[in-house]
Amino acid sequence: MTTLPAPGGPLRIGLVGAGPWARMTHAPALASHPGAVLSGVWGRRPEAAEALAAAHGTEAYTGDTGFDALLAGSDAVAFAVPPDVQAPLAARAADAGRHLLLDKPVATTVAGAREVAEAAERARVASVVFCTLRFAGGTAGWIDEQAAAGGWFTARATWIGALFAPGAGSEFGASPWRREKGGLWDVGPHALSVLVPVLGDVTEVTAARGPADATHLLLRHTSGASSTVTLALDAPSGAAGTEVEFRGEAGVSGLPAGDGDARDAFRAAVDALAEAARTGVAHPCDVRFGLRLTEVLAQAEARLGPVDA
Q1: Left if phi > 0, otherwise alpha if psi is -120 to 50, otherwise beta: which for 148?
Q2: How far apart are CA 204 and CA 271, in angstroms?
Q3: Of the candidates 215, 212, 195, the residue with the CA atom closest to the CA atom of residue 298
Q4: Helices 63-72 and 83-95, interaxial angle, to 10°?
Q5: Which of 80, 133, 171, 277 could form a disulfide with 139 if both were Cys (CB 3.0 to 4.6 A apart)?
C-alpha cells in the first residue's frame, strides 16, 4: 500500500475540477478539514481553476503538465469532473501512487471504471467513491442499521429530480453529461449505494423507460430480496423528491428526511480515505464498489435499448 506522510502530518489532497460541485462542496470541505491540506486545484478551464484556487489560498493548474504538477505535490487526489473525464485521470493518478477520492459514477462505461480499479489495485493505493448518503451523518448510520437488521423482503427507491425544469435555477442543469446520460447515471449510483449494502449485490436487472429521462428498474439481490427503483432528472418541479423504504421481518423502515450537509459528508469521506490509506483495509465504498455500480447501471442501460425503440 502506498504510504502517507509522516504520522500526524496532514494529507495533501489535490482537487481535479473547478465547476459548481467542486466550488460548493469539495474545495471548501478540503480547505477546512483539520487533517488535510488542499494542495492545488486543476481545471480544464484555466480561469475557473485560478478563481477557485485563489478563493482557498492554493495553486491553480491546468493542462497535461499541470496535472502532473498537481500529482507531484499531492498524496491523494479528489475528483469533481464528469465521470468519463474522471476515469482516465484517476487511473493516471493511481499509477503515480496517489490515493483516490472519486465522485460517482466512476465512469459510464465498464471499461473505463475497470481501468481505474485495476490501476488502483496495481499501485496498491486506497480509494473511496463519494456516494453522499454513505457518508452523511443523518443517513450513513441508518444504512448500517438496516444492513445489520437483515430479513428484508423488498425495497423501493425513488430519486426524482427536476434539474431541467423551467425556473429550476440549478447550475447542474447546464451539465452536458447529465443532460446526455440522465437520471440513470447521475442518481442511479445514489440508489444503489443504499440498496446494495442492505440487500446484497444485484443478480438480475430489468429496466423500462418512463416519461422524459425517467428509468424504472426491477432488481433481484443476493439476499433473495427484490427492489424497485425510479430515477429521473427531468421531472416537473412538483414531482421531485427522494424516498427509500425497506420492508421485511423488522417491519418498514424509511430513509431519514434530509441528507445532511454535503461538505460534512465529504469531510467524512476524506477521513475514510485517510483511514484506508493508513491501515491498508479497503473501505466498503471503494473503487471496486464503484466498478460494480457501473456494471449494474451499464446492464440496465443495455436492457433499455435505443431511446426510440
Answers
A1: alpha
A2: 34
A3: 215
A4: 50
A5: 133
